[in-house]
Amino acid sequence: MKLTLKIWRQKNNADQGGFVSYPIDGISKDMSFLEMLDVLNEELSNQGEDPVHFDHDCREGICGMCSLYINGKPHGPQQTTTCQLHMRSFHDGDTITIEPWRAKAFPVVKDLVVDRSAFDRIIQAGGYVSVNTGGVPDANEIPIPKRIADEAFDAATCIGCGACVAACKNASAMLFVSAKISQLAMLPQGQVERKERAEKMIAQMDSEGFGACTNTGACSAECPKGISLTNIARMNREYFSAVVSSENV
Amino acid sequence: MILDSKIPAGPLSEKWTQHKFNSKLVNPANKRKYEVIVVGTGLAGASAAASLAELGYNVKAFCFQDSPRRAHSIAAQGGINAAKNYQNDGDSVFRLFYDTIKGGDYRAREANVYRLAEVSVNIIDQCVAQGVPFAREYGGLLANRSFGGAQVSRTFYARGQTGQQLLLGAYSALSRQVANGKVKLYPRTEMMDLVVVDGHARGIVTRNLITGAVESHAAHAVLLCTGGYGNVFFLSTNAMGSNVTAAWRAHKRGAYFANPCYTQIHPTCIPVSGDHQSKLTLMSESLRNDGRVWVPATKETAEKLRKGEIKANDIADKDRDYYLERKYPSFGNLVPRDVASRNAKYVCDEGRGVNETGEAVFLDFRDAIKRDGEETIRAKYGNLFDMYQQITGENPYQVPMMIYPAVHYTMGGLWVDYNLMTTVPGLYALGEANFSDHGANRLGASALMQGLADGYFVIPYTIGDYLAQIGPKPVDANHPEFQKATNQVKDRINQLLNIKGSKSVDYFHKKLGKIMWDECGMARTAEGLKKAKAEIKALRVEFWKDVRVLGDNEELNQSLEKAHRVADFLELGELMIDDALNREESCGGHFREEYQTPEGEALRDDENFAYVAAWKYTGENQEEELHKEPLEFENVKLTQRSYK
Questions:
Q1: Is residue B258 predicted with pLDDT exceeding 60?
Q2: Closest residue in B to A190 (Cα–Cα)
């Protein structure tokens, strides 16, 4: 396949950045999207040009590190991570536009690499059950109905890639935050800190500069793990019930 | 140096309890006076950092990824073993211990493995308390499955994403300690060297991957939780960033490297599709429970298949060779990983491979679908089938999957004693980075168990013994050794940037990977290993003359990061070959063609090789020095593994 790649290049956060077009040839349909970029980078490197920087690690769709905005969609045309996207989804002669995640809370580091540490700080605000190592009950002393366990699992599969934020016109992080709040609100282990968790995580989310939710559902539609919009509804319910009974007011 | 494994005296089942009692304690008020560095935030690193911070130590945690949650433990699919015996099917701590020792082909330490089995039960309790959503039965209790040919159901799992859920549990515990101010996180920061002062590990030198700043950090102890070195083969199931640099730098500062040649090659991976391939994807070995492995009975049929003249489904049963079922009638398709991998290589070497490259065999679900129906198979393996289709573009419900073995895990690693301390006092190695628990072959669902055992339940006890002895006096970060190590790292960066050669880093990495895979992969010979050693030496010389690293140090520079890692792989590769040459026997994942039974199975030599080979670095371009830790078996009888 012969393609034209229109790629966002930005030397660092202070740089203004802009698109640069690269023609590329000899791309096989069996390549993954990132392997196609590897080929481009090898060519750039051979010409003495700085390779295109992008985040990636496991390349099997689970670490959440890869993060490209391809032809106007996070992770490209399929509902999967960029590393699992293959070139058979494109056609000979296509022009492919590749950008970084665009959100105020995810500043660009270089080229297609962004800083997603805001997500870590939101988890640090309360995305856990406060138990120390040791001194916990036997695992089977906490029975959990299978339906609840399965539903909590569905929320827990979030890989923290940030596609939800990139997909949202408001750059809202509600899907990410609600997935963690939901998981722990549904499980018995999460009950003790349930209210406090919702309040603290949402406060942190707001302070990071993510936008609000207007229920368009783009986040869920583009989520490579199919995290459901139901989680946002659940989070709102958690938040309201926490705030009305809050001792922090 | 005589390697002192510090295995406690007494009966096997009492060693750990007794050892915990005999270890010195650090007074709670003194714990806050100690600094501990943890490198790597996978299962071992995150669990250790969180647990030590909970105890009151001040922890600094480093990872090269943008977030600690992305460490490659996250990609583990199958599950985690624990001797809970919830299924009432005869499991026990001793049985898990025994299976692990036997599965490792009798090349692991009894005491360590027993401890692993003993604490395995606590891991499950801990993870459930954190909110890890394990699979459950309708009654609300935890579900188990049998895994990797085990005869009991002791594997806990969270669909095909067990590693992800366990890591997110450890990451949540770590995040809580970050919020408490007990852990300081350093993401996108890579360890470049170890600082040793008066023979003790006292800190590390790091490079900030965003700014390029080279800095040093002082501490009372350093924990390396940096995973395995499978990427020395270029193609493996490891993440792209997985590397040996931290462990290798420590090795060059005095930590012995044990059993480097023990590599696990996983039989069920998606085959290489072309030269562009950057990594290999594992398909869970649970697929072998229902899939049947075969190749055409003759070379001629295989050739027609490769040319596309016929399709797999056109081949009649009588023209197929279900070679695992034929050779191993009692275990069939469920033989251990090393046996399944080797046999795939044999049939492909005979010219019976089934894809364009000739390096693939079929894993066929036709009969299982006929027997159980497509829906049943979909319920069991749906996500795996989808993943396969995503990557290959073929529908495995209609045509057989194609699979081939790939490098997956490294059992070798830094030598550690019973306390997980390396030969450098104050330097510890946990998880896949150490060598201690899996012998020459790791069983399925045991890697997650070991990573979390080391981090949650071993290091919190053993580190205190050392810290109490050295006392809480602050470490002098101005000691000249810190500056010296920092300067050495800066010099190396400049050296790499100034070569300005003609070949990319990947060029060297791919060449190294091919040498390692051809000569130090699934089957090894003295002749091939010697040839490979010479080739690697030459490649290393060429690397330092002709590699091209673009850009500057003071920016995000992925080719510079990679160059450092590949430079270290080029040295490690040679040591793996030395180790494989030295071990004149076959055991587990290490198969020397000269040493096999008449049926072609691995032939151990317990009389001469029942030892851990620990290698000491002796200087640039010098041969490493071999030290032997004899393995003593008091509780199990060494036997020849047989799966006929």
A1: yes
A2: B131
